[in-house]
Amino acid sequence: MAYVMHVDFKMAGPFGDEMAKAFADLAKSINEEEGFLWKIWTENPETNEAGGIYLFETKETAEKYIEMHSKRLASFGINEVNAKIFAINSPLTAINKGPVT
After folding, report:
1. By three-state DSSP, how is residue 63 classified?
2. Do you know which PANTHER family this protein is assigned to (predicted)?
3. Which domains are seen in the chain, by residue range?
4. CA-to-CA distance for 5 and 16, rounded, in angstroms?
5. What is the chain's mean pLDDT, rounded?
6. pLDDT surpasses 80 at 100
7. For the residues 60-65, what does the mean pLDDT come to?
8. Helix extents (H) in 1-101
9. What is the Cα–Cα distance from 42 to 35, expressed in whole angstroms?
10. Which of 19, 59, 64, 93 shows a CA-CA span of 20 to 30 A to 85?
11. What is the pLDDT of residue 99?
12. 3-class state of residue 51 by DSSP
C-alpha cells in the first residue's frame, strides 16, 4: 500500500523560478530515496511557506525520509517542520483520477 506525506514549513524564499534553480540538485537527490515514488513541490510566497506532497511505497520509508529531511532542513535553519503521513484509499482515489497505483 502506498502512503502520501504532506510536509510544510516556514521559509523566507527563494520561490518560483529562483527556487527551481536553487533546489534542482536537491530535487534530483530526492529521486534516489528509498521507497520514493513522486513529489509535488508546494510554495506560498505570501505566507513564506514551502513544502511538498510526497508518495512513498510504505509508511516506513515515508517515516525514514521525514526523519532525514527534518535534519537536513534544520541544517538550513528550519527547525519547525509539519509532517503528516496518510494511507491511501486506492479505490476511491482511482475514481477521482489520483496519480497512484
Report:
1. helix
2. MONOOXYGENASE YDHR-RELATED, PTHR39169
3. 3-94 (3.30.70.100)
4. 22
5. 93
6. no
7. 96
8. 16-22, 24-30, 59-75, 90-95
9. 21
10. 19
11. 83
12. strand
Mean pLDDT of all residues in 74-100: 90
Distance CA 67, CA 6 (A): 14
AA identity, residue 74 = A
Handedness of CA 23, 27, 32, 33 (dihedral sign): positive
d(CA 35, CA 19): 25
**Cα(61)–Cα(93) distance, integer angstroms:** 21
Per-residue pLDDT band at 28 (split at 50, 70, 90): very high
**What pLDDT is attached to residue 101?**
61
Q: What is the distance between the alpha carbons of residues 8 and 52, in angstroms, rounded to a whole number? A: 7
Strand partners of residue 39? 54
